[in-house]
C-alpha cells in the first residue's frame, strides 16, 4: 500500500507543476485590459465572499475557535485594506473606460476614475488622453477631465487646453475648466476671466464661469450676469441661470424669477429658455403663463418656441390657442411656427384652415411657411399659395424657394410656366438653377 502511494507522488507533483505553468502562461498572455477586468472581478468576488460568510465574532466560541479571534482594531484594519483600489493605475482605469462601447458604463467608469484625480496622479490621466483627439466626438471625456482637474489646479488645466487646441477649440475647452473652477472658487475664476489678457475669449469663458458659479451660488451668479453689458450672449447666459432656478424650484419658481427681471434682454433669454424646456410636454401651462405677456418684444421667441413644440404633438390645439390671442406679433409667430408642423402631418387640413382665414399681412408669414413646407412634395400646388402672399418682398423670396423645389420635381412644367409668370429675368434664372441640397437638408425633409 505504501509503495503504491510513493509511486504516485512524482506523477501528482508533475501534474501540479504543469497546471501551474499553464495558468501562468494564460494570464501572462492576456491583454492588459482583460487583466484589469479580471482583477476587478476577482476583488469583487472576494469582497462578496467576505460578506456572505457568517460573522465568527457573533458565534458562540468553541475550543477550536478561540485562538482565531482578532481584536476589533485589527478587524477594522483588514476591512479598510480590502477596500483600497490597488488593482490598477489611474491610467489603466481611464484607458479601460475609454474603450468601453456602452456609453452608460463608460461614463460611470470615467466618473469613478476621476473621483481619485489629484496632483499626484494627474500625469497618469494625461497619458491616457495622449491619443484621444480633443474634439466634439470626445467632448464628454475631456469635460470630465477638465472639471476634475480644475478642482485643484485650474491654471495648469488652462495651459493644457491651449497646448492641445487653438482658437475657438481651446476657448471651449477652457470654458470647461472654468465651470469646474467656479464651482469651487467663483471669485478666483471671475478674476481670471476679467484679466485683460483674456478679454478676447471672455464672452465664451463666461459660459463656463456662470454655469459653475450658479451651481454653487445662484444669487452671486445672477448678480454677475445682470451686471454684464453685452449683446445676445448675455441673454444666453440668463438661460443658464433659468435652468438652475428650474432645478431648484421647478417651473413656478423659474417663471416668477423670469418675470421679475428688469432688463428686457435678460427677460427675453429667460422666457425663451423656459418655453424651450416646457413647451412640448406642458404646452397648456406655458400658454397660460405667456398670455399675460402677449405682443411684448421679450416674449416673441418664447411664443415661437411654444408654437413649434406644441404643434409637434397637437397642431390643431396649437393653432386654436394662437388664434384666440390678441392680434399682433405673438399671434403671428405662433401661427407661423404651428402651421409648418401641421402641414407636414396633414397638409389638406392645414390648407383648409388657411382658406377660411382672411388674407392679409397678418397671415402672410403663415402662408409662406405653409407654401415652403408643402413644396417639398408638391411644388406646383405650393406655388399658388406663394403667389397669394400680399407682402411683395416675402412673396418674391417664397416664390423663388418654392419654384426651385418645383423645378427639382418637374423641370418641364416649370420651364413652360416661367415665361408667363411675370417674374423678372433674374428671378426666372434663379428658379431654373436650384442649388444642390446637402444630406442634412434632405434628412430634415423626411
How would you describe what is shown here?
- Helix content is 73%, strand content 0%.
- It has 446 residues and is mainly alpha-helical.
- The chain has a domain of 89 residues.
- The protein starts with a helix and ends with a helix.
- The relative contact order is 0.03.
- The N terminus is likely disordered.
Set out the fold topology.
Blueprint: H1 2-29, H2 32-52, H3 72-82, H4 90-98, H5 103-114, H6 122-128, H7 139-149, H8 154-164, H9 167-184, H10 186-194, H11 202-216, H12 218-226, H13 232-260, H14 264-278, H15 283-291, H16 300-313, H17 315-323, H18 329-345, H19 347-355, H20 361-374, H21 379-387, H22 392-409, H23 411-417, H24 425-431, H25 439-444
Helix pairs in contact: 4-5, 4-6, 5-7, 7-9, 8-9, 9-10, 9-11, 10-11, 11-12, 11-13, 12-13, 13-14, 14-16, 15-16, 16-17, 16-18, 17-18, 18-19, 18-20, 19-20, 20-21, 20-22, 21-22, 22-23, 22-24
Give the rounded overall mean pLDDT: 83
Figure out the total of helices. Answer: 25
The proportion of strand residues reads under 5%
Our Rg estimate from Cα atoms comes to 33 Å
Largest sheet: none
- Residue runs with pLDDT of under 50 for 5 or more positions: 1-82
The total count of strands amounts to: 0
Shape by Cα distribution: globular
Q: What is the gist of this entry?
A:
The chain is mainly alpha-helical and 446 residues long. The chain has helices spanning 2-29, 32-52, 72-82, 90-98, 103-114, 122-128, 139-149, 154-164, 167-184, 186-194, 202-216, 218-226, 232-260, 264-278, 283-291, 300-313, 315-323, 329-345, 347-355, 361-374, 379-387, 392-409, 411-417, 425-431, 439-444.
